Every structure is written in C-alpha cells, then in structure tokens.
Amino acid sequence: MPGDIPTNGAPKTLADLKTLLQDDIKVKVAGIDVDGVLRGKFMSKEKFLGAASSDGFGFCSVIFGWDIHDAVYSKELLISNRANGYRDVVASIDLSTYRRIPWENNVALFLVSFLDPDTKEPLCVCPRGVIKQAMEKAEDMGLQCLAGAEYEYFNFKETPDSVSEKKFTDLQPLTAGMHGYSLLRPQLNMEYFNDIFDESYKFGIDIEGHHTETGPGVFETALGYQPALRMADNAILFKFLVKSIGMKRGVIPSFMAKPWGNLPGCSGHIHVSLRDKNGRNAFAVSDEELESGGREGAANDDTKYMSQVGEWFLAGVLDGLPDIMPALVPTINGYKRLSGGEAFWAPNAVTYGYDSRAASIRIISPPSVPQSATRLEVRVPGADMNAYFALSAIFGCGLRGVQKQLKLVGVPIRKLTLEDKRNGKVKMLPLSLEAATQTMMLPGSIAREVLGDGFVDHFGGTREHEVKLWNEAVTNWEVERYLELA
C-alpha cells in the first residue's frame, strides 16, 4: 500500500540480524537529542548483537542535558542532571530502521529510542518516543498518521575550517543570484546536486522533488510521503546525508531558518493526513460529495472538499498552534524568518486557506488534487525544526480537534487583510522564542495537554536556556550600531 514503511531488508529476528551482519565488523547506532541532532557511535558487531538480544544498551543521559554545542543547560532539567551524575539511560535498538550508509563504505546503521532505566518507558523528550505516542493515540482512534516534509537550505562554498577562520562572516554562496526552479544553475555543481538525490535513494529516503529555490545557492527537496515515524526518521537522516555529501564536496549546506537578513528564509513545510482502517484518506470527501460539489455542512467553500474529520483536525491544529510554537520553531533565529510575514511566504498568524501559500495552514484538496491526495500543509516550521517534535505537536493538536469535534473558527485568509492583523481580528503567533516558550509552558496550555507536562517542562527548559544565551550575547549589530555613537 502506498505510504507503508519500506522494509529495506530490515531484520525481524535475531537470526535474521546475525545473517544480515555476517560480513560486518562494526555497526553504527544513533539517537536524536532535543535539537534534532544525531548522537551516536560505532559499536563492535559482538557488542551490538548482545544489545539487540537484550533490553538495549546504556547511553549517557548527558545528551539530554546539554545544548546543540554541548554546553550543559543553565538549569537542572528532568532527564539529565548533576544530581544523578548524568547516569545512563537505555538505548533501545529499532531493527526496522536498518539501512546502509553508502558514503561510509555501506556500514550498517540502526536508530535507537531512549527509555527510562527504571521503568523502561520512553523518555518524555525522546524524539522517537514522543512521536510514537502521537501515533498510538491515532491508532486508538482507528487512524494512521501520514506525513511529508519539504526542506529549503542554503549551500555555501565553505568548509568547517573556513567558516571558523572567517568567524562565520562573508560566507560564499554556492551560486550567485536568485534562480528558483533553474535548470541551468545545478549544472555548476552537478555532482553535488545529483549526489543528494542518488545517495538518498540508496539510503532509503524517498525524494519526490529536488530543485533550486530562489536565493543564492538555495536548494529545495521534498521527501516522499510516509507514516509519521518513518517520515521523521527520514527527515533527520536527510539532513545528515546532505551535510555528509557536502563535506565531501567542499560545501556547507545550512538548514538555519534565516541565514540572510534581506532574503527569504528556509522553510520546513510539513504535509499531514490521516488514513482510516480501510486504507482510505480520512481527510477526503466521498465520491458522492465530490460529484455533488462538496460536503454539505462544511464551514465554508475552502473546506467543502475536506471530510468532517479533516475539518475537525484543521480546527484542532489552528486552536493549538500558538501553544506549540517552540515545537515547530525551536530556535532564536527561526522567528526572524517569520518576522517578514507574507512578504516572504512565512506566515505568522493563525490562518488557513484553500491552496494558499500565505496561510499558516494550506488546504490541499480537490479540485487542485485528487481526493486521495487531500491533506494539510503546515507552513510555519523552518528548516531548523526537529521533525519528530513538529509532527508530534501537529498530530497531537489535530487529533485533539477530532476527539473534541472542534468547530472551525475564523475565515479563510483570502477574506483577510493586513489591517485585520493590526486590529486584532486575526490572532498572531508568538514572534520570539521567549514569548513562544512562555506561552507553551503556561499551566493548562494545549501543548501540555497533547505533549504532556514532562515534555513541556524539560523541552521548555531547554528553550529558556537558548533565550538566556541570546540575551547575554553581544552581537556584531550592537557593536556596529552603538560603539561610536552611543
């Protein structure tokens, strides 16, 4: 069935695993931290097989106690802290994630999920554990979560050494000028451009589209639709792949949301839908409704070719959107992408609309696509998102809308104006990480309802740390502006 998890020859038993690895001497394992960074290591085959045949292996909990640059968080958090000596958590190997890394001599790779060493339950902020909880909630409702992701990313003719020497200034883009959907520009870096697509295929990551986006050295890649966990795995591994290929080619790809102040930022648009027990798109209207011009009782013309379940899901995402912003936009820089609003197609308000790229939630349905392709595109996240948390938050809010049968409020964006934002007719999203984190961590927030108090308290604490570092930093902008004239 389209969208099902490809097996990639994944072993189902320990005997299958031993056969699969019979010619290997080592295996690579990796888990994901709260910033979406892969943290892993090589293991000997013997050690790996022993861990696979038991409950897993110990992994230092400090990966949940330090930030993206390995600095210990400025406050004690739930999972990893000084009081317990950064004890080990359990890394549980997921055999279904097996794949070979083609640019690393085809070494075998497996992903792990992190469990509490006492209860053996998923850690409340383990990215793979969090998304599994959202999928289990859907399954209890007789539904399956499906998703896709699109990444935009700048590419620079730089190396880790060169950017360090330049102090991350005056970076040279891979190509000059604004060349969206260009057939000419990729030929300047054809090996790198093609390697991304070809190595992704070998690595078990389906790509639907791969092209230049407007901006100097910008690519956009759309990843193939998958069940939500597989999609999140593919999204995080795609970044790893692009960065690895880039290092071999003397290129640094950047998934930073807004690397240039005067240019559009890098999005991480997410497409979502649900599938029912019969394998049918739960967001799609019936054949009869399609032929009769839409669903009777729809909120408006923009939703008339979506099912009632789809409309409830949309209402749930819109209702929760302001409260889950740190899960969609987790960095200081990410909110600068949103500050330009519709001028850069980066929506910053609680809005929706049929096939509207100016809306936070774009409805994709007939007549522009077949019924089977009916879905929602959440356009708020940037390329710096942690796909596991973003998908978990979106599905959590959407399923809450279905459970509560929430009524869709507000009007489609085509009926709104900029003045509507100014006069409060449209609810704005938090436009800084600090404001977004405060909203998420409020008692009784929708984020707490759909993601849990443990997640919100720990992840929120990591975002407070990020804000603290930003507030303490003295930037080049400040020096240039105030050094002489203040």
From TrEMBL:
Source organism phylogeny: Eukaryota, Fungi, Dikarya, Basidiomycota, Agaricomycotina
Which part of the chain is the GS catalytic domain?
A: 127-486
Its protein name is Glutamine synthetase
InterPro entries in UniProt = Gln_synt_N_sf, Gln_synth/guanido_kin_cat_dom, Gln_synth_cat_dom
Asked if Transmembrane helix is a keyword of the record, the answer is no
**SMART domains with a match to the protein in the record:** Gln-synt_C (SM01230)
Among Gene3D superfamilies, the record links this protein to: Glutamine synthetase, N-terminal domain, Glutamine synthetase/guanido kinase, catalytic domain
Highest taxon of the lineage: Eukaryota
Q: Which family does it belong to?
A: Belongs to the glutamine synthetase family.
From the record, give the transmembrane residue ranges. Answer: none
Question: Which keywords annotate this record?
Answer: ATP-binding, Ligase, Nucleotide-binding
Tell me one GO biological process term.
Answer: biogenic amine metabolic process
